[in-house]
């Protein structure tokens, strides 16, 4: 394998790992801020979270520059890719219009969604009504027994 391709794949893998870690830290920052027990901990967590956002932005820019450099090595490749993508989309739309089996599946999926939603509403309302009846019965028992 070409060493430059291997090095760029390694760099992209490390950047992806860094993006993942920075994203997780940035996502957990509000939860940790909520449970901060002192002012120094609050400001420490806030600075780490802010740094995670900055690291995430920086790594995303770096990844974009590396991928842009790899695309520029092959001239005209982006135009070919966009044309290929638009042709695939047009072909897919024609296939969707022509295929009756897919239309019937789409209709059955829509019907299934309606049935599943109505079933979910019936079950949840039954559980809610059952919980209310249980609480009213417990309240009535306690009120009449110890009243």
How is this structure best described in words?
The chain has helices at 3-34, 39-72, 77-98, 100-146. With 147 residues, it is mostly helical. The chain folds into 2 domains: 1-73; 77-147. The protein is 92% helix and 0% strand.
Main traits of this protein?
147 residues, mainly alpha, 4 helices, 92% helix
Helix content: over 70%
* Class based on secondary structure composition and strand pairing: mainly alpha
Which strand-content bin applies to the residues? Answer: under 5%
The biggest beta sheet is recorded as: none
What are the secondary-structure elements, in order, as H or E?
A: HHHH
Question: How far is the first residue's CA from the last residue's CA?
Answer: 84 Å
What gross morphology would you assign? flat
Number of helices: 4
């Amino acid at each position: 394998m070409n060493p430059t391709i291997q090095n760029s794949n390694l760099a992209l893998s490390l950047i992806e790992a860094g993006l993942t870690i920075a994203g997780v830290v940035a996502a957990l920052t509000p939860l940790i801020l909520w449970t901060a027990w002192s002012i120094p901990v609050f400001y420490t967590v806030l600075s780490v979270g802010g740094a995670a956002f900055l690291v995430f932005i920086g790594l995303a820019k770096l990844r974009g520059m590396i991928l842009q450099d790899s695309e520029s090595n092959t001239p005209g490749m982006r135009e070919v890719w966009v044309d290929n993508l638009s042709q695939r989309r047009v072909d897919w739309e024609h296939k969707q219009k022509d295929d009756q089996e897919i239309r019937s599946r789409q209709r059955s999926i829509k019907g299934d969604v309606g049935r599943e939603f109505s079933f979910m509403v019936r079950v949840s309302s039954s559980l809610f009504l059952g919980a209310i009846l249980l609480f009213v019965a417990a309240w009535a028992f306690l009120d009449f027994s110890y009243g």
